[in-house]
Specification:
about 65% helix, mainly alpha, about 0% strand, two-stranded antiparallel sheet, single chain
Amino acid sequence: MLQMWSKARDLAVHTPEERNRWVDFLRAVSILAVVFGHWLMAGLYVDEAGALRRGDLLSVASWTHWLTWGFQVMPVFFLVGGYSNSVSWDVITRKAAPGQAGVYRDWLANRVQRLITPTFPVLLLWAALAVVLTQAGLPREQIRMATEAALIPVWFLAVYLLVTAFTPIAYRAWARFGWLSFAVFIPAAMLTDWLTFTVGVPYINFTNFLWVFLAIHQLGFAWRAGRFDNRLFALAWFGVGLAVLISITVYGFYPVSMVSAPGGFSNSLPPTLALFALGVVQVGLVLALEPLGRRMLNNLGVWTATVLMNGMIMTVYLWHLTAFVLVMTVSWLAFGGVGLDTIPGTGAWWLSRPLWIAIYILALLPLIVIFARHERSFGPIRGGRTVPRLRTVLGVVAICAGLGATAGLTIASPDSISGIRWWVVALPLVGAALMGFGPVYRPRNRPGAGEAA
């Protein structure tokens, strides 16, 4: 870790003056909020019969539903994604020769590879574990619970890759129509919720993954274009968004919780108008704070920490629940459930949280050391050739379908001999192969932690 800090500090010292450091800081903070939110909300405990139970803080303490307004920060990540994707798309289109073919395909393959590279190790490890544990005779329900918990984070990657694929079209729409290219998604999200909750149209709510997050992604274009430079304007977005959010949750139809919680439907899986409003609130707040934040990031220590975090951000995100499951399993099997006898939400449970979170961090550190290299080095796309358009499209679809099924269905199978759903594991691998890369990567020397987009 000291070596990683040293490399991050060197990158921090040589950061170009024109770089918007607030983008990197928001990316790091949004992922850390998700990580600590998961560690806080999940509550495994051992009941009086000695069985391991999956508790949920949101189910026993309704006041914690309000905490999700701070921990559900995926909209911030899509805001940052819009900013970063516009930067990288501008760079590649400026460098391309007039009429050059394959620019979009090469750009998209690069973006997909950067996200999928650190995903393969965690996916393949848990597939192997599910097979081994099934053959060892462990109860399949417990295997399913472990794989489901560990692989929850991959749902976000499926949605983010889809939104990223629309970047060139969305960016052209912003250049031509400005704010209208954002505003059009508001009635789209409202109509989707109406068709879902009033008319009862099945599955239509899944289209909100696009409408809501494409809208926030458009705000990243607006941010880069300087439309939020007026801080009063950013605060107005915060105020209006908060008023709408309170009116439709506290006094309206939508649950206060922005993640799945007992007693109501989920505002995030799929997204609803409430999550859209929360996104507007968060965008207004973080962009109003930008001047203060950029001054804070002039401090070399703070900026070095930000650079370090960005160099392993996907590793932390993808492996933090594996660390959680590992700690819980060791405590239960090796130490008879020591420390797991407190029910989530009780006073004793809250007092033990700092210690448990420290243990989760310690369990995560070796995973970072082992797997962060996949985030900092890519293998070349096969043969250096431009991948045909149809293969690119099919590859992205297969990867997104596989990651979505991993989070939604889990890879663990309740009845197969092997113990896993092979088709779920295979889809991302097939998609990567179609796009010209696979799960084995040859290291390259490249600036990982401090890279721009």
